[in-house]
Design brief:
Layout lengths: L4 H17 L1 H18 L4 H26 L5 H24 L7 H22 L3 H22 L4 H101 L9 H18 L2 E10 L1 H8 L1 H18 L5 E6 L2 E9 L2 H16 L2 E3 L2 E3 L2 E9 L6 H17 L5 E3 L2 H20 L5 E10 L5 E12 L3 E3 L1 H11 L2 H19 L4 E5 L9 H13 L6 E6 H6 L1 H13 L3 E7 L6 H6 L4 E4 L1 H5 L5 H16 L3 E5 L4 H9 L4 E3 L7 E2 H10 L7
Parallel strand pairs: 6-7, 9-11, 11-12, 12-13, 13-14, 14-15, 15-16
Antiparallel strand pairs: 1-3, 1-6, 2-3, 4-5, 8-9, 8-16, 8-17, 9-10
Helix pairs in contact: 1-3, 2-3, 2-5, 3-4, 4-6, 5-6, 5-7, 6-7, 9-10, 10-11, 15-16
The structure holds ligand C2E and calcium ion (2 copies).
């Protein structure tokens, strides 16, 4: 353990420190002892020198000790040796003094001095134990002197006394050595503990600094991660911007690629796309579609004379007016120069295309005002229809263009179908329209009645009134042709009222206990004056309103439910019954039907036609029957032509049957015969 020289030195310094610190105490005890003995002995001459020596060396030793303690820089070994030497001198002077005691006559006095000396030897352990050498230097000269004195003065007791003094000295030395050893051990232990604590503190310090460094590194890492995240976010943000700008650019490129810059309308590219799409949809839904090819009359001369700026402005206004005229789902495009093309989807009839074309032409006839110029232009429109005139965009466009040229040649502000026969049809239609205006006055309308027979009993339960038109020029015309014309021309209101009067008159003259149904067109159902009219007719003719049934179609329900509901409620309140016609051809929700005062459901003939081939259809029809019954409605199956169909309906538990199988619609007189044959009860 005492390997390192430095450690040895440190430990030695600590070990002998009590020696130096107790120098005053030990010095003073020597001086006091000297003073005491000197007084006791009455200051003998022989003692003066040794006592003076003792005092001198004791003071010198205090000085040396103080000197050593004054600075930690001081040389330990030198001071220790000086201290040892001075102590040796003190010991020797004491020894010399002891030895002089043989001169003292009084044994008591001498013994007191001896005892004092022995006490000094014993007491000095407490101040000198930290250095065995110093202790020995102090006590050995005295011990030797005491033995000498005993030998000279007490020859008889010499052996005992000397033995006693030797044992005492031995005991003192052993005690000193023991104290010294314990002291040394304590110092070593303290030192080791100090080292240990130092090491521990160092370890803690190291750990703390490592911890601090770790924290620091962690913080730095976090900062770096945050910085990096921010950077990435910035990059991401920039990237998003770049992407969105790119998208915008692409969008505007896309827009430019598909739109006319001047008017913002779809251009030729987009038009062809749309036509292709429409062709697909029309093919799927088995519908017609019309292409209207419009060319402005006199545009070139306006452009040449008034300048391009005005020409451009005019085109914009033309585009605006055309757009205003069309329905939302129709497409208008600027095809080029002063040409515009319109696409009309879901075309119900050619007539619809005619109406749109007429509207567009009329909208362009009104003068345009541009920069204080009043400009009159006109337009020619050529029409081609899918699928009749082609099933490809380019063909349909070319044919519409051809038709437009023909219109232009004919003098402008014209509309022309591609197919010559269609143009004929158009002419026919216009003629027919003219004829229709006079039809009521000329008594060209008449009514036929088709019987409705109970599927279970075969008894006739009612008749449906069906309007007929026999025109002087065109002969019999089908209601499928003229009813739409009546609606378009608004003649339906007057003709509708005429039907009501005719039927009520028929009821009154025949007086059968059956229902007489009257077909209503959608337009009539928006008209509440019609209800007043019916009410007036009923009360005038005093006819039972229960006998009158009004048939409305499903499409009516979809248009404006609330208006229709209030119309039907009013009609129902009069006492008339309501039948829902052509059921199964539309998409009426049962929810609607249950909220309306409907008494009868007329199941469309298309459902019955296909029932034998389609089991799915059979279950649908069966469900309709069940449902109508549960809602307290009667069901009428229309268009029954064969016995098989009749049997099918009987199986389905259908109520009433109407169709050629029993009877075609009959003229008034024939109805009379029919009803008699069937012995339908006549009211009295
Ligand atoms: P609707 O109301 O569905 O009338 C039934 C149509 O089916 C009638 O055609 C009728 O002759 C026909 N029909 C009856 N049984 C059979 C059959 O077994 N087989 C076939 N293939 N057809 C049968 P119509 O008389 O030509 O009437 C056509 C449509 O004209 C009517 O269809 C109705 O919507 C409308 N209509 C007829 N009269 C009037 C009327 O007075 N006012 C209104 N607004 N529309 C009417
Ligand atoms: Ca009907
Ligand atoms: Ca029908």
């Amino acid at each position: 353990m005492w390997t390192d020289k430095k450690i040895k030195k440190i430990l030695l310094a600590r070990q002998v420190k009590p020696l130096f610190t107790s120098s005053i105490l030990s010095g003073l005890s020597n001086i006091f002892a000297v003073a005491l003995i000197y007084t006791l002995l009455d200051a003998p001459d022989y003692a003066t020198l040794p006592f003076a020596g003792i005092v001198f060396f004791a003071l010198a030793r205090i000085f040396i000790a103080r000197h050593y303690l004054a600075s930690s820089e001081n040389n330990l070994t030198a001071h220790l040796y000086i201290y040892l030497t001075l102590t040796l001198f003190i010991g020797i002077f004491w020894g010399v003094f002891e030895f002089t005691q043989y001169k003292v006559e009084s044994i008591q006095l001498r013994n007191i001095v001896m005892l004092l000396n022995i006490a000094l030897i014993a007491g000095s352990i407490t101040t000198l134990y930290s250095s065995r050498g110093v202790y020995l230097a102090y006590i050995l000269p005295q011990g030797i002197a005491i033995i000498g004195v005993f030998s000279l003065h007490s020859p008889d007791l010499i052996v005992y006394l000397n033995l006693a003094i030797i044992i005492f000295m031995g005991f003192m030395i052993a005690s000193c050595f023991n104290m010294n050893r314990i002291h040394k051990k304590g110092i070593e232990l303290t030192y080791n503990n100090e080292q240990l604590i130092g090491d521990l503190n160092k370890e803690i310090g190291v750990r703390e600094s490592v911890q601090v460094e770790l924290e620091h590194n962690k913080g730095e890492l976090e900062n770096k991660v945050n910085e990096r995240t921010k950077e990435l976010e910035m990059i991401n943000f920039d990237l998003e911007n770049v992407i969105s700008e790119k998208e915008k650019a692409e969008e505007s490129l896309q827009y430019l690629a598909y739109h006319d810059e001047l008017t913002g309308l779809p251009n030729k590219n987009l038009l062809i796309d749309r036509i292709s799409q429409s062709i697909k949809i029309s093919a799927r839904d088995r519908q017609q579609m019309a292409i209207l090819f419009l060319d402005l009359d006199r545009f070139k001369s306006i452009n040449d004379s008034l300048g391009h700026a005005i020409g451009d402005n005019l085109l914009k206004q033309v585009a605006f007016r055309i757009n205003e005229t069309l329905r939302k789902h129709d497409t208008v495009s600027r095809y080029g120069g002063d040409e515009f093309v319109m696409v009309l989807e879901k075309l119900k009839s050619y007539n619809e295309a005619i109406q749109v074309a007429k509207k567009v032409i009329n909208s362009l006839i009104k003068p345009f005002e541009i920069d204080s110029h009043k400009i009159h232009i006109g337009a020619s429109i050529g029409i081609s229809v899918y699928p009749t005139d082609g099933d490809e965009p380019t063909i349909l466009l070319r044919n519409a263009d051809t038709a437009m040229y023909r219109g232009k040649k004919a003098g402008g502000n014209q509309l022309q179908f591609y197919d010559a026969s269609m143009s004929n049809q158009l002419r026919d239609r216009i003629e027919l329209e003219n004829e229709l205006h006079g039809a009521l006055e000329n008594n060209e309308f008449y009514i036929v009645y088709q019987p409705q027979v109970s599927a279970k009993t075969g008894i006739t339960t009612g008749v449906e009134s069906l309007l007929r038109w026999n025109n002087a020029k065109h002969g019999e015309i089908s209601p499928d042709r003229f009813v739409p014309l009546l609606e378009e021309t608004g003649l339906i209101y007057s003709v509708g009222r005429w039907v009501v009067t005719e039927v009520i008159e028929f009821i009154c003259t025949h007086n059968y206990d059956i229902t007489f149904s009257i077909n209503l067109s959608a337009l009539q159902c928006n008209n509440h004056e019609f209800i007043d009219f019916v009410e007036a007719q009923i009360s005038k003719a005093k006819v039972d309103p229960k006998k009158i049934e009004f048939e409305i179609t499903e499409s009516l329900l979809i248009n404006d439910f609330e208006t229709t509901k209030s119309f039907l409620d009013n009609l129902h309140t009069l006492g008339c019954t309501i039948a829902l016609d052509d059921f199964g051809t539309g998409y009426t929700s049962m929810n609607y039907i249950s909220r309306l005062p409907i008494d009868v459901i007329k199941i469309d003939k298309s459902l019955i036609r296909n029932i034998s081939e389609n089991n799915n259809l059979r279950s649908i029809v069966s469900a309709i029957v069940t449902m109508s019954k549960s809602l307290g409605m009667k069901n009428v199956f229309e268009g029954i032509e064969t016995e098989d169909e009749l049997l099918e309906i009987q199986k389905l538990d259908g109520d009433i049957i109407q169709g050629y199988y029993y009877s075609k619609p009959l003229r008034g007189d024939d109805v009379e015969i029919w009803l008699c044959d069937k012995s339908v009860e006549k009211e009295t």
